[in-house]
């Protein structure tokens, strides 16, 4: 069955559709970026992070698969090619749970603006592409707080794949989806694997209230749009230094 590709907004009006912000049990806010490899999401989040840092806002950055508690086990499993889809998924879930408990939740309760390069939706898209049950994955990550904004950077498959292949001397075994036996050729396996992930992301656009961003738009234009959405949906004053907060009230 062919996957229906969602239409990408071309104007700020299309993207800035008001959605009711769910009530939070904490004063902080969570901004997430998602997308397949090569979609441009990490570049845009870095630029947003620098803009907020220069402004003196209280922020914290976290990224997928970065917990020191799990990193060594994941590395050994990859090196020996021992990871099945389920064990790989559980390792990522353990990594996320550790960062959620030690970083994300304490900082949200402490009134920080948390920026996440990849979030639970990466597991929903990538692990499902490896054959894990979507329902099982949703249940596995049911403890995770829902983001205030989830930016989904969508670039055409060929554009995203070419960006990655051109920038790397060799694709890694699991990165290319070689564990799935899709193809003996790493580049071809990577392309097919990324297509599966892309299709899974596309299916979450409406159900998970993604803010769809065109990954082919110029970097500076896309960053301007991203900042505008953040300013529209999040009260940045509450994360500003005390001096700025005082000036804003006057």
Summarize the structure.
This protein has helices at residues 12-15, 41-54, 68-79, 85-109, 120-129, 134-140, 157-167, 186-202, 219-233, 242-249; strands at residues 29-34, 59-63, 113-117, 149-154, 211-214.
3D architecture notes:
The protein has helices at residues 12-15, 41-54, 68-79, 85-109, 120-129, 134-140, 157-167, 186-202, 219-233, 242-249; strands spanning 29-34, 59-63, 113-117, 149-154, 211-214. By secondary structure, it is an alpha/beta fold. The chain has one domain (26-242): 3-Layer(aba) Sandwich (Rossmann fold), CATH 3.40.50.300. Strands 2-3-1-4-5 form a five-stranded parallel sheet, with helices on both faces. The longest helix is centred in the middle third of the chain and has 25 residues, at 85-109. The protein is globular.
Record keyword descriptors for this entry.
five-stranded parallel sheet, disordered N terminus, 250 residues, alpha/beta
**CATH homologous superfamily identity:** P-loop containing nucleotide triphosphate hydrolases
Largest sheet: 5 strands, parallel
As a percent range, the share of strand residues is 5-15%
Number of domains: 1
In one word, what is the shape? globular
From the N-terminal CA to the C-terminal CA, the straight-line distance is 58 Å
Q: Biggest sheet, strands in spatial order?
A: 2-3-1-4-5
Overall mean pLDDT:
89
Q: How many strands in all?
A: 5
Percent of residues in helices: 40-55%
Structural class given helices, strands, pairing?
alpha/beta
The CATH architecture term is: 3-Layer(aba) Sandwich
CATH class (first level) name: Alpha Beta
CATH level-3 fold name: Rossmann fold
């Amino acid at each position: 069955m062919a996957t229906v590709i969602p239409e990408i907004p071309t104007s700020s009006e299309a993207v800035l559709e008001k959605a009711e912000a769910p009530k939070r049990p904490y004063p902080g806010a969570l901004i997430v970026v998602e997308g397949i490899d090569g979609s441009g999401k990490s570049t845009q989040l870095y630029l947003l992070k620098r803009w907020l840092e220069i402004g003196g806002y209280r922020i914290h950055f976290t990224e997928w698969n970065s917990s020191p508690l799990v990193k060594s086990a994941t590395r050994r499993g990859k090196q020996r090619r021992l990871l099945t889809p389920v064990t790989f998924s559980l390792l990522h879930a353990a990594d996320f749970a550790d960062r959620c408990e030690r970083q994300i939740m304490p900082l949200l309760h402490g009134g920080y603006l948390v920026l996440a390069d990849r979030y639970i939706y990466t597991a929903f898209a990538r692990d499902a592409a490896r054959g894990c049950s979507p329902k099982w994955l949703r249940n596995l990550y049911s403890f995770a707080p829902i983001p205030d904004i989830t930016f989904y950077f969508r670039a055409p498959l060929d554009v995203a794949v070419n960006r990655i292949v051109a920038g790397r001397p060799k694709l890694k075994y699991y990165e290319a989806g070689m564990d799935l036996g899709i193809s003996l050729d790493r580049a071809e396996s990577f392309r097919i694997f990324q297509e599966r992930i892309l299709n899974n992301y596309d299916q979450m656009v409406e159900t998970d209230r993604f803010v769809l961003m065109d990954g082919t738009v110029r970097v500076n234009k896309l960053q301007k749009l991203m900042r505008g959405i953040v300013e529209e949906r999040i009260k940045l004053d509450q994360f500003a230094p005390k001096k700025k907060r005082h000036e804003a009230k006057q």
